[in-house]
């Protein structure tokens, strides 16, 4: 009985050992197959980069501001009697925009003028009597003072009547009317906005690290996003003396001519400030760059040795330092060498060492001065 038990246990042990060995061999084969597996190559487009000379410039987002811009308001309270402007029109400096009711002041002016006439006649009589020595000098001085007071009163009422007319303080373009005839206006109530639109200011900020590169009088080019190629040029007219403590940026103001009034106060614009001599850079399409908090990078084609000892076309990540942008292109200041082949599209699906196949039948946009299409 014990002999049969020993034989049975021996057989079971042999079966278990055989199964275990088979499993070990199977796992080793799967590991080897996994190690030898190469994913299919990814299709990418590439560009052989070259060194170029780009004008040294600094880009920033700016805001258009009027050289002269105010909201015209009433100086004195009153009821609107007449409106002499139309919304959106241009006006000359000093043009009457609005007139308030002056019936009360005109009545006061008539009374004051009558009093002035009476005081004038009285002064003439007293002056004649004083010349003949009939009245004392004090009487003459009193009559003269009363006449001057009457003159001042007339001048005061006439000034009040003039102030009831709201005038344009400078030439410019009007906004939308905010009052109607018959409306009561309190002192300071808005009537209409008035903006001088040619020339205009463009205000933008630059990092404190670049402040030393700026100079008053430097050239500035302004373009509108989606502006169908619109550009305007001007000069840096002022550089602020204080750096913003919150952003560590410095405010800069440029002055630009604005024919046709394409630029309006409040618009966001893209500005490029000329910093002088051109710089040697490598221009690549913006689509080639992988942006990340730890650094910007591109993928460069290389011949990589595979696990089987053979070579294949793959990619390696290369961290780069970027400069300015120009159209569809971005400047690489360091990290690339002329003649290297850079992946321009499809980089988002790559990893270092990945195999690739190049298909340049369709290339991404790479125009330094693109012209938006009109639809």
What does the model show?
The model has no long low-confidence stretch (mean pLDDT 83). This protein has helices at 2-36, 103-131, 137-163, and strands spanning 42-48, 51-73, 78-83, 90-91, 96-100, 165-167, 172-174, 184-185, 190-207, 219-223, 231-243, 249-256, 268-285, 297-305, 311-319, 321-326, 329-334, 341-345, 356-358. It has a six-stranded antiparallel β-barrel. A four-stranded antiparallel sheet has the order 6-5-3-8. The longest helix has 35 residues, at 2-36. 24% of the residues lie in helices and 40% in strands. The termini are far apart. The protein folds into four domains: 42-55 and 279-358, conserved putative lor/sdh protein from methanococcus maripaludis s2 fold (Beta Barrel); 59-66 and 193-278, Efflux pump adaptor protein, beta barrel domain (Elongation Factor Tu (Ef-tu), domain 3, Beta Barrel); 78-99 and 167-188, no CATH class; 102-163, Helix hairpin bin (Helix Hairpins, Orthogonal Bundle). It is built from three helices and 19 strands. By secondary structure, the protein is of the alpha+beta class.
User: In the CATH hierarchy, what is the architecture of the largest domain at level 2?
Assistant: Beta Barrel
In angstroms, what is the radius of gyration? Answer: 42 Å
Q: What would the CATH topology of the largest domain be? A: conserved putative lor/sdh protein from methanococcus maripaludis s2 fold
Secondary-structure content class:
alpha+beta
Strand order of the largest sheet: 2-9-12-11-10-13
The rounded distance between the terminal residues' Cα atoms is 98 Å
Q: What is the typical, i.e. mean, pLDDT?
A: 83
Shape: elongated
Share of helix, binned: 10-25%
Unreliable residue runs: none
What share of residues are in beta strands? 35-45%
How many distinct domains?
4
The CATH class designation of the largest domain is: Mainly Beta
Order of helices and strands: HEEEEEHHEEEEEEEEEEEEEE
Number of helices: 3
So what's the oligomer here?
A: single chain
